[in-house]
């Protein structure tokens, strides 16, 4: 399906735009589930200034949705109305700074941050090897793995709001909690500064290898998956609640709760976004009925159902 083409009217309002505006851009191939409809408009800004210029001149009635690497995302089958912003090359830099710090663009994959830190002999960031996704998503959800979280290493970040204003945020400004941060929903993160400590490159790479092996042994990372589906409720593990409710391996259409790790959903081939989301909601219903605990989605869901 397609959505009305509004790129011409958007372009007219931003004659000095350097980034790209594309109509009805397919999104399925940009997500790890490989499902979903198109973006009505896809915008790839050239850099932070280009992003700010575009947002400052974008009508307030046009919805804006930001996506990253698509690792923890369901795009619904009807597509995403308005503008979908995806940061690219202009936000993919990594710079090593004095004092065992790394300044990175938010389009940088988490694994590349971990590798750059290792190469520079900076310890304390290897846990990012175990997080699928990019730095922007890690900031938004306080992503973590192997007993460490984004908040443990973040110094500061930059963001652009819906009005095109640029903000600098300290770690404290994020109000981090488990899988959550508190900056306004319209903030689009553009850059982050991380603090590490002195380390040995070989030892850090060894730790990253151990993290990789642990993931491969326990998670269906070679499948079409969105990673961890539900947050762990306080005092509980989501996968244990799902297993106890009899949902391991359960299917809706071609969507399945992974038999390997039942807090992971997988597209076994030919699943729709509707299948995947319906499976998640059925799991939530069964867990609530079995344990009285209501699971909260960790995967982000955007767009509209197929018409």
From TrEMBL:
Could you name the domain of life of the organism this protein comes from?
A: Bacteria
Which positions fall inside the FAD-binding PCMH-type domain? 34-214
Gene Ontology molecular function: FAD binding; UDP-N-acetylmuramate dehydrogenase activity
Q: Where is the active site?
A: 179, 228, 298
Q: Which UniProt keywords apply?
A: Cell cycle, Cell division, Cell shape, Cell wall biogenesis/degradation, Cytoplasm, FAD, Flavoprotein, NADP, Oxidoreductase, Peptidoglycan synthesis
Any one GO CC term of this protein is:
cytosol
Under SUPFAM superfamilies, the record lists: FAD-binding/transporter-associated domain-like, Uridine diphospho-N-Acetylenolpyruvylglucosamine reductase, MurB, C-terminal domain
> Which cofactor is essential here?
FAD
What Enzyme Commission number(s) does the record list for this chain?
1.3.1.98
Instruction: Quickly give the catalysed reaction.
Output: UDP-N-acetyl-alpha-D-muramate + NADP(+) = UDP-N-acetyl-3-O-(1-carboxyvinyl)-alpha-D-glucosamine + NADPH + H(+)
Localization:
Cytoplasm
Q: Which family does it belong to?
A: Belongs to the MurB family.
Q: What is this protein called?
A: UDP-N-acetylenolpyruvoylglucosamine reductase
Q: Which organism is it from?
A: Ancylobacter pratisalsi
Q: Provide the gene name from the record.
A: murB
